[in-house]
Design a protein that fits this description.
The protein is of the alpha+beta class. It is about 55% helix and about 10% strand. Strands 1, 2, 3, 4, 5, 6 and 7 form a seven-stranded mixed beta sheet that branches. A two-stranded antiparallel ribbon has the order 8-9. A hairpin with a 2-residue loop joins β2 and β3. It is flat. The structure holds flavin-adenine dinucleotide. The site of flavin-adenine dinucleotide has 21 residues, from β1, β3, α16 and α17.
Amino acid sequence: MAYSSFRRDYLTKPIFRLALHALPRLSATEREAIEAGDVWWDADLFTGNPDWTKLLAFAPAKLSEEERQFLAGPVEELCRMVDDWKVNWRWHDLPPEVWAFLKSRKFFAMIIPKQYGGLGFSHYAHSEVIRKLSTCSICASVTAMVPNSLGPGELLLQFGTKEQQDYWLPRLARGEEIPCFGLTSPEAGSDAASMVDTGVVCRGTFEGHDCVGIGLNWHKRYITLGPIATVLGLAFKLRDPEHLIGDRDDIGITLALVPTHLPGVSIGRRHLPAMLVFQNGPNWGRDVFIPIDYIIGGVGQAGKGWKMLMSALAAGRGISLPSLSAAGAAFCAHVTGAYARIREQFHVSISKFEAIEERLGRIAATAYLLDAARRMTCAALDDCRHPAVVTAIMKGQATERMRVAVADAMDVHGGKAIMEGPLNYLGSLYRGVPIAITVEGANIVTRALIQFGQGAIRCHPYLLKEIQALEDADRAGGLDAFDKAFWAHVGHSFVTAMRAWGRAWSGGLFAPAPAAGPTTKYYRQLSRHAAAFALAVDLSLLTLGGALKRKEMISARFGDILSELYLSCAALKRWNDEGRQCDDLPLVQYCLEASLATIEVRFDEVIANFPVRPVAWLLRLLIQPFGPRRRGPSDRIVERCAALIVSPSAARDRLTVDLYHPAATETEHGVALLERAFALTAAAEQIRERMHAARVRDIDQAVQQRTITTDEAVQLKSAAEAVAAAVAVNDFAPEELAARGAGAGNKGEPSSPAISSTLLPTSDLPPQTQAAE
Ligand SMILES: Cc1cc2nc3c(=O)[nH]c(=O)nc-3n(C[C@H](O)[C@H](O)[C@H](O)COP(=O)(O)OP(=O)(O)OC[C@H]3O[C@@H](n4cnc5c(N)ncnc54)[C@H](O)[C@@H]3O)c2cc1C
């Protein structure tokens, strides 16, 4: 008997039987989520031995000349048109001219190819547009984001029939149609696949013709652009009780395009998401009839809706919210560095206080890291990869880190950031954070189930093959496939264990790394931890199997480790791609020191809480014999990062590149006032130092003592005036606020009618349901 048959029949077969019970079984929706998209650098990390040459050789994302011009032209113009304060607090909508501009300049058609009249932009260009808009108005940015993200446009491009593409895409590109997508409903949020919205295949009359179609009943809520949409991409569960399109009763989740003018469709009511007034609301349909060919992709795609959605999400999730978050962090670095520099307390710029530096350093490093990861992920998407795990990591991590950066920025600004009014440039971002955390997969569930849970199966070199072999209806074929995958897995695990052990006990000293100057040591540490991660994952899957899915705290910690590895790689790559700028080194050091400390703490937590104790002891011995030892960035690194954003410099410009800068003449724009004060304060620094050395505080006295010249006194006074204007906040007369909108602040403009008089609050249940209650 050949060795291979002996191995299969006498060794693999019993393991095959055991594994049938031990390995995670996939639900239909999980399988579809896992099969959607593909893998990229995440898979390299899972091997435990990432190939650094491959990472560094991967071409960075670039803009074409046309994309560059769009950013400098229409995007800049749009930013100038939007007055975020009035939009949110007075008009509760973008003004008509902004809507018209968004449509005519094809902001809703960035992903639609030119052949259909769209802009045909790269993912990176799309991301850059969202990034810039986000630093001007979250409302404008979300409005532009949605049609280019998970919605009819993307779904039609990926799955639409030729007729659907030829009809809908040019209309969407011209802005004649406003799309939205309805997936979640009151009962089904994170567990969207449990939706109760239904479609029943039946005969009916559509525009005077008898045809086979679908009778729809649904109730969706929180749908962005929903209140004004002309076409609704709808997810529902399709049934075919009369077997008009096949032989199955329950066909499953299906996606269709529903024109919102059809009888039975109700749209128009609005939610007010954290008072960021982008169009968002509930919608519902009662006995709405659509022809069967309104299914996206035609009748052949009936029942494949979940897979289509996951596939569209695999790309979209890596762009919209990561771009907004990277913008948020860069904006925080820009304004908080400037504000800390100009704001004085105890006769000292607050930027000089160590406790403020601690926050400034973290903001600066977060801005560096998020933009690094955004660029690297966009480069992968532009290289036609759809790495679903990477984009889930980006969504979860970018929004969480933006949350910390925004909170730090708020704290450093104190009352200045709390008082609402046209002069407040942080309030909208602060209110927007929970939205970013919640949409496109709420972060808690993303961290617990998606980043690692799906990642482990999707990216592991052998696991998916093993699961597929176990689920193969042809048992003999399954056993053969399992035999191959399993023994390759055993070999891989043995090598990984040796690697992890060697690298842990030597402190990563000899782990592989490219020659990357002062960052080489960080590559070594990442090589070390990637091996430890691969081994820990293998042992966890082996001993916990399907139960790992329910051990969300363990899974989430593995998700954190994987995320830290990915983001650290992005920071190192950015530094390399940008020509290894010496001034930026503290930022890279901060990112890596913080990441490595988190990784070590998470490993420690996994080991301390791992339910199978002998495995925990083995892991301790093999991957973390001396416990967590890193403490995060040193105070020196933190100070150097903080210093980068409190003075004008090329490094500061690199960090805050391509944000929207309002014109200096915009005297009511908080950022314009801040930028002016910052520039004047920095320019007057030497004069102030001279006064300080002479121990004189009063400008006129300093002139009399000839410590400074009269010209310098003028310069100092205009800097002081600019600072006073920049730290000012709005106040309102009581009559401006009483029973009316918050008005236009202290500039005395008339107020609009109050929200309460225009949008009477009711439950978001459809009228029929309310009546029934
Ligand atoms: C401003 C805004 C715009 C939106 N736009 C759209 C849109 O255009 N189209 C659309 O279809 N939907 C949209 N949504 C809906 C959004 O996708 C859902 O809000 C989101 O999926 C979360 O659902 P939920 O709010 O019902 O929270 P729930 O699902 O009730 O979740 C509550 C909490 O439980 C956590 N949780 C749930 N399950 C688990 C688990 N297994 N393990 C651990 N934690 C878990 C979640 O992470 C969350 O923290 C929008 C929502 C908002 C707020």
